[in-house]
């Protein structure tokens, strides 16, 4: 159920920042199968047409993948936890660091690598369930090159250069839109830094699904996310 407070967030127009996996799309067995929740593209289009609100998708994926799934013309997508910012020069890639991390990874059954060029995600969803906690612990303990950090997510460990992240990106977006009330909707542990940032800015944090979170508001699943975006597009907010 959508908390009523989310339908009356005040007089300021909204800066809606939405995560992709688990938020606009249900979690799938493989990243290539994470199709958007039914109605998500239409809800995003409607929100974009709303004259006052601003809308951004902020994801750990490459931005082009999210565009491929959503197909919403003119949608602003910030990728790779803030490293990939449309309109800004491409960041240099540190391939040597990624290769070093790969060479230090543990051997775990079912584990596979998603090399995103600038960052690396190591997935263990296909690892037999009893081995998954150990896989998570081993991946978190991999010694990293200087200036790199590990971020645990849903059956994944992401390695990325420090200095970015969803919290950082939300701070940048809030500076661009000082008249708007920032709202961040996300589902994963990697989204907690975004919740902390948006709350620090006096904005609203909405967690999708179960699990501990800093976010004061909850939605049950991506279907409710679509409902909420649609209501905001109609002017409730
Ligand atoms: O920031 P997000 O948009 O939430 O992206 C986070 C990561 O999502 C993807 O992995 C996760 O979703 C997959 C599809 O549902 C799932 O199979 C996997 O277990 C999840 O970890 C994506 O593959 C990563 O690159 C993103 O960083």
UniProtKB/TrEMBL annotation:
Pathway: Glycan biosynthesis; trehalose biosynthesis. GO terms for biological process: trehalose biosynthetic process. Belongs to the trehalose phosphatase family. It is an enzyme of class 3 (hydrolase). The keyword Nucleotide-binding does not apply. InterPro entries: HAD-like_sf, HAD_sf, OTSB-like, Trehalose_PPase. Keywords: Hydrolase, Magnesium, Metal-binding. Removes the phosphate from trehalose 6-phosphate to produce free trehalose. This is Trehalose 6-phosphate phosphatase. It comes from Calidithermus terrae. One of its GO terms (molecular function) is metal ion binding. It catalyses: alpha,alpha-trehalose 6-phosphate + H2O = alpha,alpha-trehalose + phosphate. Pfam families: Trehalose_PPase (PF02358). It comes from the Bacteria. Its EC number is 3.1.3.12. PANTHER family: TREHALOSE 6-PHOSPHATE PHOSPHATASE. NCBIfam families: T6PP. Its cofactor is Mg(2+).
């Amino acid at each position: 159920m959508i908390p009523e407070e989310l339908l009356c967030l005040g007089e300021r127009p909204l800066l809606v920042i939405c995560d992709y996996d688990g938020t606009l799309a249900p979690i799938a067995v493989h990243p290539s199968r994470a199709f958007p929740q039914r109605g998500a593209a239409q809800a995003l289009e409607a929100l974009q047409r709303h004259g006052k609100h601003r809308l951004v998708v902020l994801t750990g994926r490459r931005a082009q993948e999210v565009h491929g799934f959503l197909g919403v013309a003119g949608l602003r997508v910030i990728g790779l936890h803030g490293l990939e910012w449309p309109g800004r020069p491409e960041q240099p890639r540190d391939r040597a660091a990624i290769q070093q991390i790969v060479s230090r990874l543990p051997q775990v059954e079912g584990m596979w690598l998603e090399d995103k060029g600038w960052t690396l995600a190591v997935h263990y969803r296909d690892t037999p369930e009893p081995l998954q906690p150990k896989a998570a612990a081993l991946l978190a303990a991999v010694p990293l090159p200087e200036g790199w950090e590990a971020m645990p997510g849903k059956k994944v460990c992401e390695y990325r250069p420090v200095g970015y992240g969803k919290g950082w990106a939300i701070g940048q977006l809030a500076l661009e839109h000082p008249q708007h009330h920032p709202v961040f909707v996300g589902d994963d542990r990697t989204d907690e830094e975004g919740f902390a940032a948006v709350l620090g800015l006096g904005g609203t944090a909405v967690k999708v699904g179960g699990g501990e979170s800093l976010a004061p508001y909850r939605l049950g699943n991506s279907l409710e996310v679509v409902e909420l975006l649609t209501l905001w597009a109609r002017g409730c907010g």
